[in-house]
Write a structure and sequence with these properties.
Elements (H helix, E strand, L loop, with lengths): L3 E12 L2 E12 L3 E5 L6 H9 L6 E6 L2 E2 L8 E4 L11 H11 L5 H10 L13 H13 L5 E5 L7 H13 L7 E5 L3 H4 L5 E6 L2 E7 H8 L3 H8 L2
Parallel strand pairs: 3-8, 3-9, 6-7, 7-8
Antiparallel strand pairs: 1-2, 1-4, 4-5, 9-10
Length: 233
């Protein structure tokens, strides 16, 4: 595939005796929003951590921009985890400044604009944020880095269903898809579907299918959820 940002080549990852993913082989193109979807326990989080350099495969290799990914290269990847590295004693603004001090690629101006969009008070202590607002802050911190790859594990987790659509639509406006690629995992497939250019379907640690979303709709005549149901029968 031309302009590939991430390539998995026969990748397997085991935790003691449990094989989380096995024989993963796929390429992800640049400049797209890609959904990593599948049932619980299908290997989504492990796959995301492998492409960020946080985990190393037992077999095979993961390439980032045609080079084997390692801790140094992982600096070019922004990762929003399901837990997230935030500190309760900081204010929201101090948390932004902390990230700016750690990452030379952190765009404070973008973060400030996103705080306004997310309706976050820069003077509020992180520990006092609601679960939804904490989720918004994590999104701000992840997206404000100017890196080629942004990886988000369940970015909708904790967000109020009433505001998810507006946040998702606004989120894309802050991403430079000419220079950035977004890979996200989610259980809320129907909600993120309008944003996705491609979907990778995992099941039991293997890739069951992957395709461009336009082609999925043309071929299956329905939504990604319907495609999932048919593939996983």
């Amino acid at each position: 595939m031309e302009n590939t940002i991430v390539s998995f080549q026969n990748v397997s990852k085991r935790y003691q005796l449990k094989e989380a993913v096995r024989h993963l082989s796929f390429d992800l193109p640049t400049g797209m929003v890609i959904g990593l979807i599948g049932p619980n326990g299908s290997g989504k989080t492990t796959t995301l951590k492998l492409m960020t350099g946080l985990l190393h495969p037992n077999d095979g290799q993961v390439l980032f921009q045609n080079k084997r990914i390692n801790r140094m290269m992982a600096r070019q990847v922004s990762y929003l985890s399901d837990t997230g590295a935030v500190y309760g004693f900081y204010t929201v603004r101090q948390m932004v400044n902390y990230y700016a001090g750690i990452y030379a690629d952190f765009n404070v101006a973008k973060a400030t604009e996103m705080l306004t969009f997310m309706q976050l008070d820069g003077n509020q202590r992180v520990r006092t944020l609601s679960k939804g607002n904490l989720g918004r802050l994590k999104i701000v911190l992840a997206v404000s880095r100017q890196v080629p790859l942004i990886v988000m594990d369940e970015p909708l987790s904790g967000l109020d269903p009433l505001v998810r659509q507006s946040i998702l639509k606004g989120l894309i406006s802050f991403i430079d898809l000419e220079n950035q690629t977004v890979v996200l995992s989610t259980h809320e497939v129907d909600e993120v579907e309008p944003l996705l250019d491609m979907a990778v379907l995992l099941n039991h640690g293997e890739v069951s299918a992957m395709d461009y979303t336009d082609h999925i709709r043309e071929t299956f005549g329905g939504s990604i959820v319907e495609w999932m149901k048919q593939v996983l029968v």
